[in-house]
Amino acid sequence: MNNVKQLSPNKSTYRAEIDGLRAFAVLSVVFFHAFPSGFKGGFIGVDVFFVISGFLITSHIFQSLEKGQFSFIDFFSRRIRRIFPALILVMICSLAFGWFVLLSDEFNQLGKHVAGGAAFVSNFIFAGEVGYFSTESEYKPMLHLWSLAVEEQFYIFWPLILWVTWKMRQNLLLICLFFMLSSFLINIFWVNRFPTEIFFWPFGRFWELLIGSVLAWLMLYKANMFVSNGNKKNKSLIYILNNFSRNGITTFIGIFVLLASVFLITTDDPFPSYNAIFPVFGAVLVIVGGSASSFSRSVLSNKIALWFGLISYPLYLWHWPILSYLHIIEGGTPHRNRTILAILFSILFAWITYKFIEKPIRFVGLKKGFRTLVLCGAFFLTGLLGLFVNFFDFKDSNGIEDVYLRQGLEHNFGSTSRWYKGLNDWLFLGNYAANTVAKLKLSIQPNQKEIALVKNNLHELSTVGKKTNTKIALLIGPNKSSIYPEMLPSEISVSPTRYINFFLDELNDTKNLSVYDPTNDFLDIKELEGLLYYRTGTHWNNKGAYIAFINMLKKLGLEGPTVKFSLQETIPGELIEISKLNNFPLKNGDTWLAKIDHKYELIRSKNSYIATNEAFGDQEVVYNSNPIINKKIWVTGDSFTNAMRSYFNATFSEVHYLGHWNKRLKGLSSDLEKASTKPDIVIIVKVERFF
Fold first, then answer.
1. What is this structure's pTM?
2. Which of 158, 400, 490, 519 is the most exposed place for a label (fewest CB within 10 A)?
3. Would you tell me how many other CB atoms lie within 10 Å of the CB of residue 33?
């Protein structure tokens, strides 16, 4: 191996421009979260952080290996002293504030997210809950910890890989390039199919850190590439790049690319995908440019930039919980002036944290080893506290009831409550579930990325279905609040424009796709047919499910079974359990027994596709010996499918229940293409609130 060489064109080992780059990264993220419409691509600041982290961490490891001084204990002790103090403080303060302003179910969820943050698995948790750009993300104070989790996962595996490679005397550059390219290809190939997972999971993100690792290798072992040798006759590309760096041109281009990324990349673009190349490339150019040029010194190394660079980590930790709680308290997008005030508070808290918490713990006081042990213990206890908050039922806690700033919202109507009570002892699903109330009021609107994702999935499926002679049908399960708005509390004003229409309008021109929304039909007949939904539940009952089912068949040009209905003793809906109102009065009239007027026998078998249980029900294949329609169908849906299963089974000769649409829809076109025996119809049942 070559001896360690100077890491940059600068004489000093301190990289002032990197602190300036940190300042750019954190302020981009802060302003994106505060004013997403003005700084549409500000989220790319996280990608810049990834490049910086990969570069600095790998540089440190390479130098330590060269000197024979690398120690895993020392490496992780440094990480602990750097990361833990501010993170512990922010998580504890978030829990404390959440005690006062969150409803019990929200507080439980916050506990889970704090525990996930302490275990550095937040990215996996959030990947299973919500998209980063979804409006629901605004109500998750710990959402930003996903990026920290990715970095920590990188720190766990990367030092070991490099140490083993070094001991085996293998080529470090090839190792860096191999893992970088592997991660990049995973990102490219899977971003459209699994956009949420690729955004959060490390496998599609590590390439950004590893580009920093490749750069670290080049600057260590090929330092002459970045430092002019003074040979004016050398007209090579390297010589030109050297001069670009010395004159600040490289830094200028890097900053230009970063600024363009902030204002040109949007949440509607696939990300990371190819789009992440631009901020990553910009960050690389800034690091290569160094701080020797007057341009770099004036832009990235001035006192203001350096100050923000120093507090970048605590500022990143503080800003999102403060903004998120502001959204929660206000029940939506806060006023601009309050948002600006929140940013100022974030900066103030970040400075206080850096000066009085982070800096003293890192550099002074107790012995390093003891400090590390104390921090590990405190971090572990914080994680345990999060678990306790997650599992403890605070609904019946007199203490929390006494200090609620939003006391009473559990039993009425709130901006983020799990449930609320309507008129005449009707219960409704609250805003906690997919922003149901906000969508009903149209206080939020879907972004183009969400609309495009639904449209593209169904368009792709419909295109494949046309090739395989398979009809595609989308059946909407209307929200109960859409069918019985007269039972809503007076606090809720229903928008004349439905949230779901933003999606349905985009599907009108999709060929080979039959879309049926029974809302208007339900509104027309509900007075004649009796109740179509459970008063204390979220779903349609057997009669509502049948009317939707039979009308969907008519739209497909098919005939279904005749069904006779008789009223049965009412059953408690799931909102009874959710609200924990065990003595809530139940009224008859919403529970129907369905008797299908057709004789048939069923044979059931396990579905070969997936062998798990979901809210949709058991995944299986059902064969009918005497079907009304001799056709094979695939069904993917959600809990609104449960009441329809008997109708499907009685009607068709072969019914394949594939699983929940959330898991199956993305890959359904591929499954249809590969299937040896094609279905005649693919039916998707999706409840309105999850659009």
1. 0.67
2. 490
3. 26
